[in-house]
Amino acid sequence: MIEVEGLTKQYGAVRAVDEISFRVDKGEILGFLGPNGAGKTTTMRILTGFLPATGGTARVAGFDVFEKSLEVRKRIGYLPENPPIYPELSVQGYLDAVARLKQVPSDRRKARVDAAMEMARISDKRADLIKHLSRGYKQRVGLAQALVHDPEVIILDEPTVGLDPKQIIEVRHLIKGLAGNHTIILSTHILPEVSMTCDRVVIIHQGRIVANRPVNAGQDPGSEIVILEIKPGSGGAPAAKALVERLGGVKRVEMQTPDGNGRVQARIECEPGRDLRSRIAAEVVGHGHELFELRASRVSLEEIFLQVTTQEAPGAAPAESAATGAAS
Amino acid sequence: MKGTYAVFRKEMSLYFVSPIAYVAVGAFLFLAGIFFQGILAEANEYAMRAAMQSMQFGTPLDIDIPGEVMRGFFGVTGTILLFVVPMLTMGAYAEERRRGTMELLMTSPITDLEIVLGKYFAAISLFLIMLLPTAIQMGILFRASDPMPPWRMMLSGYLGVLLLGASLLAIGQFLSSLTESQIVAGIWTFLVFLMLWILDFVIRGSSSTVAGAVAQYVSILRHMNDFTRGVVDSSNLVYYASMILLGLFLTLRSLDSMRWRRA
Fold first, then answer.
1. Which of A41, A205, A236, A245 gets the most CB atoms within 10 Å of its CB?
2. ipTM, 2 decimals?
3. pLDDT of A131-147, one tens digit each?
4. Interface with A, mutate which of B20, B95, B104, B262 (most A CBs under 10 A)
5. What is residue A11's predicted lDDT score, i.e. its pLDDT?
6. Residue among A50, A85, A131 with most chain B CBs within 10 A, to mutate
């Protein structure tokens, strides 16, 4: 449904988006995760036809966002970070105006406005002026605005920012309810938001994609990394390391140097989708090592996120060299 | 075309809930009324004096009072517009930019030209609504005059006011598209209009020089004088048409540059 290839956006000397590529399948919810200023909003603005890209291509429903901008815009519902509302209008009057702007045929306009209000659960406020609504309701009006022309693709820029916890849960439910019939991209800088609402996450940092992976809500999310703490028996730490490495499904073992009590901590990377904890325990104990701790690391997504957002210097260097390389 | 109408509808519905539009229209009608009354009183006095002179010296009475009143009224209407139009146009784009609704318009399946035209036609419509009550003044003038002033003169006077207003609206909307603050837009628009007006005074002494001739051509009110005398000159039509097209063209370019700037 959405195909992005080598997309680049240059603002003067600043490269806000740097050759990013990803795709979103029909009915999928993609989470766009990154710290503020990572390039999320810029990418979304390019997809919605608000900004032209400097390089690369992006296609929505088969239409190039630059060449066939109007075709793309017909198919996209977009909620910018601040809902684009006219406070002096009533909810219904506003949605009717938006439906006209989005070229909803006149015979379907009334029904679409009603449906959008129904979906965003603001039907009871239809006659209220938008300026009299609370922040949460304004956000829902913004969502209704993005839905009014029944778009195939919905793009939401930080849809839960500035809402209270109850409103956040409501908006998340609403978004999840839209999946299936709609393809959705939402941006956020809050990690749990992604694991709660999205099927796939793209982590973006300093204009580049640093991770693109599915969010497996059903599976134990930490099963891929296991933290082990033992007091090695005969053969010491190297023997224990070799023992674990021999197990099927183990990709890599990092063992630290023993601490004062002679205990060693190890970080074991396993193949995705395999939980090897019980087998590791059996092997370690069976070979005479003392087991102190064994746990699945539940922070894998967070780990990536923290890694990219804290290692500023190494992240910046390749981005810069790529920028000069492309410029010359 | 459908996009233009959608923008037009949206603009009109916002005008009717906007206090600024009411204030601007109210201010215009108030000033137009005051000045009309002043012009009438002055004309009355002048006519009385002329009649007395005519009786005293036995010369025939040869003055066109209704024509003078009409000329004076259209002239002063043009001047009032320089002050009122900035109020009508200052929010056109600046307010959309500040609210982020520009993003809504520019990501809707309509072209930038449709946005520009929709907004412009809405402003013209409001302007026509604003002019409509001045028919009262015209009615008074036509009822009180015997013989009635020529219709032709009134129509060409309105045409002049309309063209002047349309030019000012086009320029004002362009200036509004340059900033996110409608106050800044309003002040700039007023200053630009003031310059176009002051040129008229500056050049009075120096119309023989080249600079004087250029200034004379640029001065926006000067081109209305012929209209108020009942003369529709094609050079004036060309002048106002160029101003309107220039304003709309620059607005279109300004929207385009919004897409390239860092927002």
1. A205
2. 0.86
3. 999 888 899 999 999 99
4. B104
5. 85
6. A50
pTM for the full predicted model: 0.81
Put simply, the answer to whether A48 touches B107 (Cβ < 8 Å) is yes
CA–CA separation, A179 vs A26, rounded Å? 9
Q: Which of A14, A93, A145 sits opposite B13 (nearest CB)?
A: A93
> For helices B234-260 and B151-176, what crossing angle results, to 10°?
20
Residue B215 corresponds to which amino acid? A
Q: How far apart are CA B263 and CA B258, in angstroms?
A: 8
Contacts of B260 in chain A (CB under 8 A): 51-52
Among A16, A73, A88, the residue with its CB nearest the CB of B107 is A73
Question: Which tens digit of pLDDT belongs to each residue from B125-136?
Answer: 999 999 999 999
Helix B182-202 / helix B210-218 crossing angle, nearest 10 deg: 130
Q: Do A97 and B105 touch (CB under 8 A)?
A: no
Cα distances (Å, whole numbers) of residue A89 to A116, B30, B117, B165 = 17, 28, 22, 28
Beta strand spans in A25-123 (E)? 29-33, 55-60, 63-64, 76-79
Residues near A69 by beta carbon (within 8 Å), at least 6 away in sequence = A49
